[in-house]
Amino acid sequence: MTEIRFQHIVVSLAVSALLFALCFSAEAQQQKEIRKIAYLVAGSAASMSTNIDAFRRGLRDHGLIDRENLIIEYRHAEGIESRLPDLATELVRLKPNVMFTANTSAALALKNATTTIPIVVVLTADPVAIGLVKSLARPGGNVTGLTRLSNSPEIIGKRLEILKETFPRVKVVAVLGNPESASAPSVFKEMEAVGQTLRVHLQWVKIRRPNDFENAFSAIRKTRANALMVLSSSNMIIGEPQIVNFAITSRLPAMYFRPEAVDRGGLMYYGPNESSLFFRAATYIDKVVKGVNPADLPVEQPTKFDLAINLKTAKQIGLTIPPNVLARADRVIK
After folding, report:
1. Mean pLDDT highest for which of 39-48, 112-121, 204-213?
2. Is the pLDDT of residue 23 over 80?
3. What does the alpha-carbon distance between residue 106 and residue 86 come to, in Å, rounded to a whole number?
4. CB 85 within 8 A of CB 250
5. Is 160 exposed, middle or buried (0-12, 13-18, 19+ CB in 10 A)?
6. Which domains does the chain show, CATH number per domain?
7. The dihedral sign for the CA sequence 239, 244, 247, 253
8. DSSP readout, 41-99?
9. Phi, psi at 292, each rounded to 5°
10. What is the rounded average pLDDT of the residues 239-265?
11. Per-residue pLDDT at 2
12. How far is CA 2 from CA 7, 9, 16, 206, in A?
């Protein structure tokens, strides 16, 4: 009887030890689960550093920590958008949990590369107009995220209005843009309409490749434009230092599509707070990796828009910012 009881105790202890080991193993496995994000960048790594930092902060807030329980695979097209389809296919082969991009052409490349892997975007273009989603409220596919509206007719029209209000004598505005970007046709058309209303002539200066800038600057000098406006594209991000330097040395008032341009010496920016959008994109990543269907996640639009002015640059090139415009600025660099 005593021997039977002893055997029973031994078996119980063995079963308990086995159950404990299984639970510990399952818990350890769960703790070590690694998520993988594929991030397709149309420009260069350096050009997106500020927004990527905001994106990572957002991920950390959701417990997704790079190099601990998260791997981010980056691919950069370096401004050559023809490379995007191959890079998108390469990322799909890595079988990530979710894919992410902040460029319209890159988003289209990812969508063409996969219909099953979730894709989160922070876009400048209207995702409905370019066919990424069925509607903002019900995306209906494997793509969702946020819009920046940087190239929307409303934002571009507002930028041109602010430029004209700040410098009423402006008559010719050189517009730097990439004609090959997905939103280019509608953007150019809408800008023409706004320009006619403001009685401003627009000089289109096309940038197809990162090495097109010197020719573009020569064209602007020949037509004697007295203001500059930069449209959103990966080429413009890569060439931003060149553009800022050209505008300063040419004493041209310039309106940019990224707040970072003002930080590096650009004169003015108007648009959404981009860092907050990238920070918010992490919420979408978190939901998707937890199993939420992107088809059911509404696409968000920005609700807060900032006006940033580099007063130091204005003084450097001999420009005066009217007090009423300066008073409306959300950020002034002195």
Report:
1. 112-121
2. no
3. 11
4. no
5. buried
6. 34-150+273-305 (3.40.50.2300), 153-271+306-333 (3.40.50.2300)
7. positive
8. ESS-TGGGHHHHHHHHHHHHHTT--BTTTEEEEEEE-TT-GGGHHHHHHHHHHT--SEE
9. -70, 135
10. 94
11. 52
12. 9, 11, 21, 93
Please give the Cα distance from 138 to 140 (Å, whole number).
5
Is pLDDT above 80 for 149?
A: no
Two structure tokens written together for 302 = 């920005």
Contact 123, 146 (CB under 8 A): yes
Helices (H), the chain: 2-31, 49-61, 84-93, 104-113, 153-166, 184-198, 213-223, 234-238, 240-249, 259-263, 274-289, 311-316, 323-328
Looking at residue 278, its amino acid is F
Across all residues in the chain, what is the average pLDDT? 87
At 44, the amino acid letter reads S
Across residues 43-65, what is the average pLDDT? 86
Q: What are 172's two structure tokens?
A: 């010719």
The three-state secondary structure class of 167 is coil
Side-chain half-sphere exposure of 24, counting CA atoms within 13 A: 6
Residue among 114, 91, 278, 111 nearest 127 (CA): 111
Instruction: Supply the DSSP symbol for 210.
Output: G
Q: Dig out the tokens for 1 from the structure.
A: 């009887």
Residue 136 to residue 130: CA distance in whole angstroms = 12
